[in-house]
Amino acid sequence: MPILSCNCSCRHCFEELDGRRLDDTQWQRCFEGMLALATRSGCCTLKVFWQGGEILCLSPDSVHRGLDGAEQVFRDSGIAVEHYLQTNLLLYDTGRWKDVLLRFQNGNVSSSVDFPNVYRRAGSRSGDEYNRYWLEKKNIAERDGIRVSVIALPNSETLELGAQEFYRYYRDELRVRALQVNLPFQGNAGPPVVLDLERLSAFMVELYETWLRNKRDLYLSPFTYFEDRIFGAKITLPCIWSYTCAKGLVCVGPDGQTGQCDCLVATRPEYNYGSFLEGSMGAVLSSPNRNAILDRPLRLARETSCGECRFWAICHGGCPIRALAFTGNIQEPDHYCQVYQAMFSAIVDRTVTPWFVSDTSANPITGKQNSST
Ligand code: SF4
Ligand code: SF4
Ligand code: SF4
Description:
alpha/beta; 4-stranded parallel β-sheet; 3-stranded antiparallel β-sheet; 9 strands; globular; binds iron/sulfur cluster
């Protein structure tokens, strides 16, 4: 996260966009820190997710220097480095950015668009104008050989419109081939975005059924991941459903501060792990804040309803920041528990009983009998 500035002003943004950015002379040091961390963690492949703020608010030269710095630092390390980019794309133009974006995963980048667009804003554009402008930029980028996948956050108007219209919009109007639906949590400005969980559950199940009826003609996350997992494919689930995101992920802020997640590093410094550039890597890895997230699944399994959940082995209590945002406590189950259970049940109902569901066996951690939801 080398920059906390953005050309947009979205109401549901969870970043504190205070203008901080990585000093352009620090790229090399920053990647040396990542190398030290990766080496201590026994990592073979390091995935670097570039996000802000907005990365295209940096200069193209600066991003090139960052990518070059990584190449130099990791050259003889035995650790492979993959770079991924998250961008709102609105500042894209061929002359300045084509060569830069083609350096990320062979030109595969991720962007964000909501439908209907209630919260995303750039200057004086309305929500619809924002989406039309985004589509123009996507078309230009695609003509330049860049493939754009999309993250969408549902809002209350999305739930009104329903999953079929949502699906049609992304597939037919935006011509998106890979879509990831994320569930929102409070932003740092304006009133919180709180969705009715019953309606959101019904929407996600309807979305899954729409996807099946359309013969899975989009790459639709999280359903693609869940089905792969259920059928035993060796895939990495999105961080939310990993056993603990603290094991394999760390976020680095523009001034070298580390923490679990972009939203924590940018807005909740009390949860940080320490400075990446100043402190030792051992101190970062043994930070009490990191240990609290590492211990979270065990505590949830012992102390909460997660211990009796038949979906424990695929969910592990969900996302710590979504627990924190809605309950004020990282050590609670994810606020979207009900929605996850509805999604998991919908998938299970349409498949043979997968390996992780059992109504009779005991939870391996607590010894409690699993409940059927
Ligand atoms: S949500 Fe993304 S695009 Fe919108 S203001 Fe925040 S960082 Fe910028
Ligand atoms: S806190 Fe949530 S969003 Fe952040 S890395 Fe962990 S699981 Fe992912
Ligand atoms: S679905 Fe809910 S109860 Fe089950 S593991 Fe996830 S958060 Fe816990």
